[in-house]
Each structure stands twice: as C-alpha cells, then as structure tokens.
Amino acid sequence: MSIVNTNTVNVKQPQGLKVLFLVEMWERFGFYTIQTLLVLYLVNKLLFSDHAAYGLFAAFTALTYASPVVGGFLADRYLGFRPAINLGLVLFILGYACLFLFKSILPFHFALALIILGTGFLKGTISSLLGRLYEKNDIRRNAGFTLFYMGINIGSLAASIFCSIIAMKWGFQYAFLLATLGMIVGYFTFLRGRSSLEEKGELPAWNNSFFSKNPLLLLALCVLCAAAFSFCLQFYDTISNAILILLVLFILFLVWNATKLGKAEQRKMMVLGSLLIFSAIFWALYFQTFLSVTLFIDRSVDRQVLGLTIPTAMFQGLNSFYIIALSPLLAKFWIWLEKSKMNPSDPLKFALGLSCMGAGFLVLALAAALAGPATPVASEWLILSFLLQTLGELLLSPTGLSMVTKLAPSNWTSMLMGVWFMSLAAGNALAGKIANFTALPTIVPDSFPLTQFYGHTFTKLGWFSVAIAVLLLVCTPLFNRLISDSETSSS
To answer: Which of 65, 332, 360, 429 could form a disulfide with 240, with the two C-beta atoms 3.0–4.6 Å apart?
Structure first.
C-alpha cells in the first residue's frame, strides 16, 4: 500500500481557472441583467400584458436552457470548446448591444435570439473546458469547480444590484449598456488568457475547417440563424408547448432504451426518469421569482428602506447572496451527516427541496393576507421567502447534478446531463403557464384587491408544492430500494 505525500502534490489551481472564472462571471452578469429585468421591461416599457410578458419570458429562458444541448453537440463534434466559447461571447455582445441601441419589438426579438444562441455555444462548453484542465483523479478538481461556481453567483449578484439601480435611475437601456460592456471585458479576458488554457479544447477538425479560416462567415451564419429564430419567438406559447413535449419524448426515449439495459441499470433509470419529472415541477415554481413574484414585488411590496427605494430587481439578488453564504456551510453539513451515517438519500433531498419551495410561497401568501387591501407588504417577508426557496434550490439542484453522474450508465452520462438541463427548460416553459394565474386583466379597477389576488395564487402554489413533496416522500422508500437493489446486483 503506497502512501501519498501530500507535500509533493500540486495544490495550486491551473492558471486557466482564473480566466474561465472571470469569463463565466461576466457572462452571468450579462444574462442575469436580462433575466432580472426582462418582465419589468416588457410590462413597463414595451407595454406587454402580463400574459404576453410571462409567455415571452418563459419561451426565452426555456430555449436558453435547451440550447446548450445543441451547442454542446456542435462543440464536441465540429468546433471544439475554445472556438465555441469565443463565438458565444461575440453573439452575447451583439445581443446586449441590440438591447441597448434599439427599443422596438423586432430588434428586441432579434437580441433575445442572439443571446439564446450565445448561451448554447458557451454555457456547457466552458464547464467542459474547465474539466479538461485537470487530470481524471486530480485532487484540485472539486475545489476548482467550487471556485468556478462562486464566479457564477458573483456575476448574478452584481447584476441584481448594479443593473437594477441603473435601470431605476437612468433607464433600462443603460443597464443593457452595462451588460454589453461587461461582455466585452469578458471577451478580451478570454482572448488574453488563451495561453493559460494549455491548448485544451481544440479539435483538429476545426483547425482544418473552412470556417476556422473564415470566422466572420461563421458569425454571419449565426446572425442569419438568429434573425430567422427571432421570428419564431413571436409564437411563445407554441415554443413552451414544444419544450414540454420534447422533455416527455426524451423521457420516453430513455425508457425505451432502458429496456435494452440490464436490470440494475433499468432500476436506476426508473428512479432518474421519475426524479426528472419532479425536477421540472420544482423549476416551474422556482422561476416564478422572475415572473409572478417580480410583478408582486413591483406592485404590492413596500420597497422603502431608510428613505431609499429599493429597485424591484435587486430583491432577486437575495438568492445569489444566500447561495454564496450557505453553499460552504451546507457542503460541510452533508459531510458531517455522511460521517454520522445520517445523510438523506437523493430522493429525500428532492422532497425536502420541494417542501422548502412550498414554504417560501406560503410565507408570501401569509404576508399578503396580513397586509390588508390598502397596505403594501413589508419587504422583510421577502428575506424569509427567498431564504426558504434558496434552501430548496441547494437541496435539489446540486443533488440532481450528482444524481445524474451516479445513476446514469457510463456511456449515457453526457446525454442524460443534457436531459437534466432539458428539465430546467421544461420548468421554464411550465413557469410561464403557472404565472398566468397571476396575470392581471386588461382593465384593473381602482378597488381591485391586488395584493390579495397575488396572495391567493401563492397559497395555491405553496400547498401544491407541499403536496408534490409529500407524494415524493411516499415514493422515496421505493426509489431508495430500487437504487440499493441496482447497486447490489451490479457489485
């Protein structure tokens, strides 16, 4: 038995981590600018109805989560990670610049299409490129990805704070300008840091291809695709329905293919397919943060603190703040539970996550009930509600990613990771339909009980989430047994 001398092990992170950390931070800064402000911009500036704003937001975000499936495939087979990231950053810059420069609806759709394509090329590939900087059993890997995840949340928190203030003080266009400048910084950071990536993420097929010698033609082709794609965004309900149908087809495809596997793999796939459905429901409720909850804050919450008005979108930064603060503590807590042999199973963590989500909505419902018809809701209630919902996210999201790697057959991991992100896309699509229960009528009389209207819907969403959690809790012993039996039979 050999003893590893930890003093000789290189614990210094690769230089490329710093580059990718900063690029992802700026990418998330730009994306969360549009995600936190989109519904407010549609309703208050472009004068969309609540229903239309919810529908377009749901279609846009669903496609951004679905696009890495296609973009990752192209990067794996034809482009390579580095050219794909480079292309994605340029598309982001063009998209945010269009949001800043143009105010009419057609350029707006075109800008959203550019952002969707940019996400497709960058979102999955940048994580894959980071993984290439480590050997398979490199002890620095987990710490590196933890730091990388920190960059994601720093970018989203900064967007929630700074861009919301700029949008309130000087207008939405200047917030989009800040997002554009951030993406430019991210782009030049990537260009200057290419040498630190150790020539990882390149494909011989790309280096010898026509488009590598004519990159502007590739960019022009993507812009033309975005122009065509922007036309489709007008049919947001159809897009949302298609995403939901696509997830169902993916799950049926997995079930059909699972019949060709051994019994152990079949049991794991049964659990995984079931939990993907619960995952989609969770995300449909979670993304109300950017839909119905955003308009509730804007219309029914007292945002005055010490004589200052807090921008509506800034409250969404509570989620990122809680993630940054709680992730290290929760990671240590899971390790302690594991050592004590009390660590909850993955299905149980899913159920607890859904319970926390439901509790977050019930807090908002209670706040609305206590406020009264003519009294705005105290903003302190949002602090508790976002805390509960973030705990739900931390219980479910990392567990889901880990679950895919544990339950997926060895040659299915990449595909099933794509299906996991499809469950997020389906959740976004479903979120728009759920948010329609809070859509205001075209003409709202002065006597309309606005706060209680939102509170009534949040009550239903809260108890619905709790009911789904109870259903999953009932199924948890079965899921645990299926996982245990599959591990026993495969050992």
So the answer is: 429
pLDDT level of residue 341 (50, 70, 90 thresholds): confident
Q: Per CATH, which fold does 13-234 belong to?
A: Growth Hormone; Chain: A; (1.20.1250)
34-70 as b/e: b if 16+ CB within 10 A: bbbbbbbbbbbeeebebbbbbbbbbbbbbbbbbbbbe
Q: Is the dihedral of CA 346, 352, 355, 360 positive or negative?
A: negative
Distance of alpha carbon 206 from the chain centroid: 29
Q: Give the pair of three-digit tokens for residue 410.
A: 């060895």
Positive or negative torsion for Cα 134, 75, 219, 123? negative
Place of tokens 């990122």: 320
User: Nearest 5°: phi and psi at 375?
Assistant: -110, 130
Q: Other CB atoms closer than 10 Å to residue 387's CB: what's the count?
A: 20
Give the closest residue to 465 by CA, choosing from 289, 282, 287, 296: 282
Place of tokens 């979108």: 313
- CA-nearest of 216, 159, 214 to 32 is 159
CATH 1.20.1250.20 residue ranges in the chain? 13-234, 237-491
Structure confidence at residue 5 (pLDDT): 47
Instruction: Identify the CATH homologous superfamily for domain 237-491.
Output: MFS general substrate transporter like domains (1.20.1250.20)
Q: Where does 204-243 show beta strands of DSSP type E? A: none
Which residues are CB-neighbours of 449 under 8 A, at least 6 positions away? Answer: 373
* Continuous segment of H or E residues that includes residue 150: helix 141-158
User: Could you please report the per-residue DSSP string of 434-481?
Assistant: HHGGGPPPSS--TT--HHHHHHHHHHHHHHHHHHHHHHHHHHHHHHHH
Q: Which residues contact 247 (CB under 8 A, 6 or more apart)?
A: 276, 280, 419, 422, 423, 425, 426
> Given the structure tokens 């759920």, which residue do they identify?
434
Residue 431 has pLDDT above 90, yes or no: yes
**Percent of the chain at pLDDT exceeding 70:** 95
The arithmetic mean of pLDDT across residues 473-485, rounded, is: 90
Torsion of CA 375, 379, 383, 388, to 10 degrees: 30
How far apart CA 233 and CA 110 sit, in angstroms, is: 9
Distance from C-alpha of 320 to C-alpha of 45, rounded to nearest angstrom: 26
Rounded to whole angstroms, the Cα distance separating 62 from 476 reads 29
Does residue 136 sit in helix, strand or coil?
Answer: coil
